[in-house]
Amino acid sequence: MTSTNKQITGNIGIFYISYVLSLLDWNVLLTSRNSRGADLVISKNSIIHALQVKSVSKNNDFSLGINYNDPLIDFWVLLLNARGDRPKVFVVPAEDIINERDKPYETNDNTGLITFDVPKQPDTEPKNFWISCKYLNGPVGTSKYLNNFDQFNIYSSLQSKS
């Protein structure tokens, strides 16, 4: 019987992404697991990026968590179907996550990149925010983020954040 342990699924994602990026000639550094901050730091030539990796075993939404706006994270790399034969990798700039999450939830129709649990009490903020699997698998998400590792080459590096 295959385990559905979330930590193991997370490890699968970290090592799968490390493998894929290594094949693309990126140097990959794993950081300490279960600590605040990036999961991976990658470098090639003079480009350096910090990555947050999230993995799910099926086509589930990704919990955004409370540290979604960490200024040191450049990209969120999202792995769907991590335990399957054909995982899907979505590379989402952290800027896209922050911009979507920080929109006023009252004006959000809950169909974009970030969705939320509708508050039970009027005039209160939602407590749970999610990166939408439905959006990622849709036409916009697929064309913009699916296997889009090329944006690592053109996106600003950590050196420009000082």
Number of DSSP strand runs: 8
The SSE string, one letter per element, is HEEEEEEHEEHHH
Under the CATH scheme, which architecture would be assigned? Answer: 3-Layer(aba) Sandwich
CATH fold-type name: Trna Endonuclease, Chain: A, domain 1
Major sheet characteristics: 5 strands, mixed
- Rounded to the nearest angstrom, the distance between the terminal CA atoms is 48 Å
Give Rg in angstroms. 16 Å
CATH class: Alpha Beta
The average pLDDT is 82
What would your notes on this structure say?
The protein is of the alpha+beta class and 162 residues long. It has a single domain, classed as Trna Endonuclease, Chain: A, domain 1 (3-Layer(aba) Sandwich), CATH 3.40.1350.10. It has helices at 6-23, 94-101, 133-137, 139-145, 151-154; strands at residues 27-30, 40-44, 47-55, 62-63, 75-80, 88-93, 114-116, 129-131. The chain has a five-stranded mixed beta sheet with strand order 1-2-3-5-6. The chain has a three-stranded antiparallel beta sheet with strand order 4-8-7. A hairpin with a 7-residue loop joins strand 5 (75-80) and strand 6 (88-93). It is globular and about 50 Å long. 29% of the residues are buried. Residues 157-162 have low confidence and may be disordered.
